[in-house]
Amino acid sequence: MKRSDLALLLVGVIGAGAFTWPLFIASSSQVQNSGHWLFLVLLPLVLAVGISAITHDRIDVRAVALLGVLIAFATALRTVGAGQAGIEPIWLPIILGARVFGREFAFLLGTLSLFASALITGGVGPWLPYQMLAAAAVALGAASLPRCGGRVEIFVLAGYAIVASLAYGVLMDLQFWPWLGGDTSIAYVAGGSLAENARHFLVFHATTGLAWDIPRAIFTAFLILTLGTPIMRALKRVNRRAAFISSERDFQRAEIL
Fold first, then answer.
1. What is the mean pLDDT of residues 22-26?
2. Domain that holds residue 35
3. Is there a contact between 19 and 170 (Cβ–Cβ < 8 Å)?
4. Other C-beta atoms within 10 Å of 99: how many?
5. If you compute the radius of gyration of the chain from its CA atoms, what whole number of angstroms results?
6. pTM, 2 dp
7. At residue 154, what are phi and psi to the nearest 5 degrees?
8. Which UniProt keyword terms apply here (predicted)?
9. Are 89 and 80 in contact (CB under 8 A)?
């Protein structure tokens, strides 16, 4: 297994645990807070391992430059939407870029786009690492979709955007829900059973999150259906050119040797 695959697997395991622990672990509020901050300390270390491993495997200088361009584009789009009523155009470059350039690129694009845009929009807080992990999951999903071409690919990506937008909302509600507090029918119950907490979360998500998640899903799918074809064509052209240049460089190097 490649180092990049191991890094992605490690991030995936930690991310899954960080989002879903309230459903399985009974703990006091003190332990909950400790685990919360421990995760925030651990996440940068996990990202550093992932970025280091991925960089040494496949991503070269040209890919890093293109990654920077897409992150800047995503950051600019986030300032336009700022998450109002689920209007988040940032997912357009994340999903399309991840689709074209593969899993390693997708992981970096998802995490760093959310990080950079949070710095610009003032969205830095304890929720940011969760947003970065959730964005990485969305990007990795787009990169892992079965290969297809033409308009079919655009329809597949639009359908995926709907599913991913709803899933992103579930993940972000999962990270916020335990800290909501209060003794209500939708609050997290420390030490409660899996069934009880799952029921409370579903009610919480349905009554608070769907009003954001459904507009996000519709809007993202609409952007992909209307703008996806020219953007994908441009990204694929850049990708083919970079691959050609890389192959030519490797051939010249082999001739010298």
1. 72
2. 3-256
3. no
4. 25
5. 20
6. 0.85
7. -65, -40
8. Membrane, Transmembrane, Transmembrane helix
9. yes
Q: CATH number of the domain that 50 lies in?
A: 1.10.1760.20
**Alpha carbons 71 and 99: distance in angstroms, whole number:** 15
The pLDDT value recorded for residue 178 is: 82
SS3 for 200-220 is HHHHHHHHHCHHHHHHHHHHH
Place 242 in a pLDDT band, splitting at 50, 70 and 90. low
Cβ-based neighbour number of residue 216 at 10 Å = 23
User: What does the alpha-carbon distance between residue 31 and residue 245 come to, in Å, rounded to a whole number?
Assistant: 53
The overall average pLDDT reported for the chain is 81
**What is the C-alpha to C-alpha distance for residues 257 and 247, in angstroms, rounded to an integer?**
15
pLDDT at residue 247 greater than cutoff 60: no
Who wins on pLDDT, 62 or 257?
Answer: 62
Q: How far is CA 120 from the centre of its chain?
A: 18
Residue 38, C-beta contacts closer than 8 angstroms, at least 6 positions apart: none
36 confidence band (pLDDT: 50, 70, 90) = low
211 in Cβ contact with 156 (< 8 Å): no
pLDDT of residue 252: 41
Question: H or E segment at 73?
Answer: helix 61-81
70 with 78: CB under 8 angstroms? no
d(CA 103, CA 99): 8
